């Protein structure tokens, strides 16, 4: 199937302005009249960053003259990064671009900047001042500092940008909003470079023209900002890169391939040749499940599905589709696929009405189909981390089995998984209040996985998770599904 597509309709042009009364009106006229790709309307979001001159007055005049211009005021000068964060919060478009307020960057480059996004090839595009287009000859040492900072950023983030510090950056708006930006000043540039790389967004770079200002013409960035950028490059390489705790956890889980393989091998005996995985996330388990003869991978998040499409769309026997487990209509593709086994691991605890999900599965899958479910165990271990992840519950002994039988499934087996994990979870999360997994923790856990697998077969205790396997009977007395026909909030 083709990858999920988005039709872009509006470009949000984000402008941070500070003491730009001499250039703002001319700059916004150029921005307002610059050519755009066909079918794309524009809005211009100007944030006045506590200017001490007439910038705010001019911005208000522009907004009254042109309905596509929206203006916002910062009560004090907080910096370029803070102003851009405000603009991001206010944008209403589905694609966005950063624009300076003094025309160092040419709005006629918009079509070139946007093309990789509109073509479906990129999530973010950097406009490079050093990749071949015409540019004004300016300061030698300023240029060398830019190149040094770009090189360090590339080394730490494993990218090959030629101009990390560029102002011109275009984004799919949903991807931009998902990044938790925090820099107030010019550290916003290395922060974005680090976080788009760590988010594994599709990154492109295109050449742009550049008409830089001299300091006597109003250029504001100084050597102090360059020195600070060195700190930001290192800081944001190792910081949390997402606003979504679920993404943080899935990213951390990638650091433990041995653990993911152990989880898969624990449920593999109950999976057949025709497997549907629900709630696949970023595919940490799917990389094993996709090796079965016929596979359907589903999630309700298009960003996850797009990522999986890029990696595996050419694989024969593999289907990727959107399925919101709280939307009854979405289950039809599961009926059409007719799986012999359905598996979802660490998913059901995220859904408030878990009984409705089980009933919908019983109504949808063919007779004899196995339902393999892994969920977190014991409310005694419930922590702030569970809340941050959006867990409604951890399951008590016999709870999931009872709900499966109530839905019309025959329970074949139950076993505990990751017994040693109880102690690590209790110390770090229940007692320690940790709200996110750290990559180093998962790397260590992955390294120790061979030992933990042995302990799982020896320890007579419960586990951090419980696995229950049910089978859809030929005839059931399951009640009609009450799953609401709406898409769940992310």
Key descriptive features of the protein:
single chain; 490 residues; alpha/beta; Spore Coat Polysaccharide Biosynthesis Protein SpsA, Chain A; Rossmann fold; 2 domains; 7-stranded mixed beta sheet; elongated; disordered N terminus; disordered C terminus
Secondary structure elements and pairings:
Elements: E1 10-17, H1 24-33, E2 41-49, H2 55-65, E3 69-74, H3 80-90, E4 95-99, H4 110-118, E5 124-128, H5 140-157, E6 169-172, H6 173-177, H7 188-198, E7 203-207, H8 223-237, H9 245-253, H10 257-267, E8 274-277, H11 286-289, E9 294-299, H12 302-312, E10 318-322, H13 332-337, E11 341-345, H14 354-364, E12 370-376, H15 384-389, H16 399-407, E13 409-417, H17 421-431, H18 439-447, H19 449-458, E14 465-472
Helix pairs in contact: 5-7, 5-8, 7-8, 14-16
Question: Can you describe this structure?
Answer:
- By secondary structure, the protein is an alpha/beta fold.
- The chain has helices at residues 24-33, 55-65, 80-90, 110-118, 140-157, 173-177, 188-198, 223-237, 245-253, 257-267, 286-289, 302-312, 332-337, 354-364, 384-389, 399-407, 421-431, 439-447, 449-458, and strands at 10-17, 41-49, 69-74, 95-99, 124-128, 169-172, 203-207, 274-277, 294-299, 318-322, 341-345, 370-376, 409-417, 465-472.
- It has 19 helices and 14 strands.
- It starts with 9 loop residues before the first strand and ends in an 18-residue tail after the last strand.
- The protein folds into 2 domains: 10-242, Spore Coat Polysaccharide Biosynthesis Protein SpsA, Chain A, CATH 3.90.550; 246-472, Vaccinia Virus protein VP39 (Rossmann fold, 3-Layer(aba) Sandwich), CATH 3.40.50.
- Strand 11 (341-345), helix 14 (354-364) and strand 12 form a beta-alpha-beta unit.
- It is elongated, with a radius of gyration of 26 Å.
């Amino acid at each position: 199937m083709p990858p999920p597509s988005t039709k872009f309709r509006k470009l949000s042009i984000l402008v941070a302005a500070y003491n730009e009364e001499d250039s703002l009106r001319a700059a916004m006229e150029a921005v307002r009249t610059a050519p755009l790709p066909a079918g794309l309307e524009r809005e211009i979001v100007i944030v006045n960053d506590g200017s001490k001159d007439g910038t705010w007055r001019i911005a208000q005049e522009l907004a009254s003259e042109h309905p596509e211009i929206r203006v916002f005021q910062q009560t004090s000068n907080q910096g370029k990064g803070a102003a851009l964060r405000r603009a991001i919060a206010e944008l209403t478009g589905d694609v966005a671009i950063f624009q300076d307020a003094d025309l160092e960057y040419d709005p006629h480059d918009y079509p070139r900047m946007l093309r990789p996004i509109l073509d479906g090839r990129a999530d973010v595009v950097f406009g490079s001042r050093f990749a071949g287009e015409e540019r004004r000859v300016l300061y030698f040492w300023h240029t060398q500092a830019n190149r040094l900072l770009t090189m360090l950023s590339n080394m730490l983030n494993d990218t090959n940008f030629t101009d990390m510090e560029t102002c011109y950056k275009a984004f799919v708006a949903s991807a931009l909003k998902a990044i938790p930006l925090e820099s107030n000043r010019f550290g916003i540039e290395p922060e974005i470079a680090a976080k788009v790389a760590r988010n594994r967004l599709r990154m492109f770079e295109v050449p742009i023209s550049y008409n830089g200002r001299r300091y006597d013409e109003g250029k504001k960035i100084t050597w102090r900002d360059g020195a600070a950028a060195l700190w930001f490059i290192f800081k944001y390489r190792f910081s949390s890169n997402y606003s979504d705790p679920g993404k943080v956890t899935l990213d951390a889980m990638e650091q433990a391939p041995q653990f993911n393989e152990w989880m898969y091998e624990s449920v593999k005996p109950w999976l057949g040749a025709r497997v549907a995985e629900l709630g696949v996330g970023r595919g940490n388990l799917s990389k094993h499940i996709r090796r079965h003869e016929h596979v359907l991978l589903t999630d309700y998040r298009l960003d996850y599905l797009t990522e999986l499409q890029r990696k595996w769309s050419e694989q024969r026997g593999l289907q990727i589709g959107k399925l919101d487990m709280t939307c009854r209509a979405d289950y039809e593709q599961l009926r059409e696929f007719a799986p012999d086994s359905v598996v979802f691991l660490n998913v059901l605890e995220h859904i408030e009405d878990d009984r409705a999900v089980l009933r919908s599965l019983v109504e949808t899958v063919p007779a004899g189909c196995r339902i393999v479910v892994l969920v977190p165990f014991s409310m005694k271990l419930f922590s702030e981390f569970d809340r941050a992840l959006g867990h409604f519950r951890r399951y008590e002994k016999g709870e999931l089995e009872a709900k499966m039988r109530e839905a019309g499934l025959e329970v074949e087996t139950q076993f505990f998984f990751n017994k040693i994990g109880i102690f690590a979870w209790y110390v770090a999360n229940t007692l320690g209040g940790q709200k996110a997994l750290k990559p180093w923790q998962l790397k260590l856990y992955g390294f120790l996985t061979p030992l933990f697998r042995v302990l799982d077969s020896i320890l007579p205790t419960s586990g951090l998770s419980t696995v229950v396997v049910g089978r859809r009977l030929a005839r059931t007395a399951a009640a009609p599904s009450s799953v609401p026909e709406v898409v769940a909030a992310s």
